[in-house]
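Annotated sample (chain length 166).
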Amino acid sequence: MIKHLTTESQAALLNFYNRIWQEQYFPTQWQQAIIIPLLKPGKDPKNPSNYRPIALTCCLCKLLERMINRRLMYYLEANKSLHPSQSGFRKGRSTIDNLLALETDIRLAFLQRKHLVAVFFDIEKAYDRTWRYGILKDLYDLGLRGNLPIFIKFFTTPEIPSQSRI
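Output written by the structure step:
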């Protein structure tokens, strides 16, 4: 829908985003979401913990979030702040990169008749348990200043309750 705006409408939208950026003003409606619970495959629908919440937010907010994410990723990549083996959520990378690296290590260990130990772990509800202030502090420690951390805080610490629909 936004892609099909006229040139004038796109310019007005750009001015709107620039004003939000300069004034650090966030429309309160953008902190609201409609939560749609989706049943996890093969799970009992009677158990509420078997649902994955999907948050529907305003498309203008999603566009701003995408712009903020691109700025953050550019900053992190340009400053080499991400570990080389981190592949998730990086442009041009995928978890297959990690699988190929593991396969290479296995082959080398086999050829050299050495042992290889691999440890894998999955943190249950990792996103829900994330210490958001700690992430902001880490970004500050990496030198991130200005409006970017302010906007990241806006997107990671919702202050207005969401509505649920079933």
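Annotation: Residues 19 and 25 are 8 Å apart (CA to CA).
Annotation: Helices lie at 7-23, 59-78, 95-111, 132-141, 147-156.
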